[in-house]
Amino acid sequence: MSDIPKQPEPLPFVAPSRHVPLSAPWRWFKLGFEDIKSAPQVSLGIGLVLTIMLLSVSFLAWKYGSAWIMFAFLCGFVFMAPAACISTYAISAQLQRQERVSFRRTMRACFVRYLGTELVFTLVLLLIFLLWARSNSVISIFLPASGDFKVGDMMLYIGLFTGVSLFFSGMMFTASQFALPMIMHRDVDAITAAVTSVNAMMKNKLAMLIWGLIIIGCLILGVLTGGLLLIVFIPAIGHAVWHGYLETIDASAYPRHKHGITATARTINPE
What we know:
By secondary structure, the protein is mainly α. The chain has helices at 24-38, 40-64, 67-96, 103-113, 115-138, 155-176, 179-185, 190-203, 205-224, 228-248. The protein has one domain (38-142, 152-263). The protein is built from ten helices and no strands. The chain is globular, with a radius of gyration of 21 Å. The two termini are 41 Å apart.
């Protein structure tokens, strides 16, 4: 009687996550700056491009007062964000493997290696973004009907707008925080990566709240400096997310990519 081939073990629906201390986000942020120092040209180049995109959205919205222009650029930014994030992870991954950081290899990771899974995840983000925009449109009925009104007359609208914005931005932050690094790191689908991210975020609520406040603080400082600090902060945050993912998520049960940067194990802090 011939031997029946053994079926492979089914992959877990969600990767296990570890508890991290409240000080962890600051350590990730520090590691992010160290990655910039190790690969300044590629990291800061990505930061410059993303800063120009963000400032362009703000300038056009202010110059022309057109919500449609701002909406179109924000949609484009939502589509570009996953590729931009993957680029910073690719830089950190090359540094951890003691490889020379290659701009070509970094861009290949963004637009070739993981493009299919990136697009699926981007569509999920875009759906959340569209629901967010629609919700803000609906609550505009609470704006004062006349042009002669005081700030107190807008308090209901401001409260609803703030609540809705926090809800949807929280959804996007929770689902994407560790999902994109996992897509870069292991051969997983977008749903598994998103569920893993949500699970890890819920397990480390306080640490993730601190991390979210750090990101908000960096964005505010970047805007106050006319975008100069954004050129540094944006890639630093991206690198930090990669380090945070590796510390928080245990994705060892999932197969490696057959090709690309993460097809081999790290030589610095090996897995």
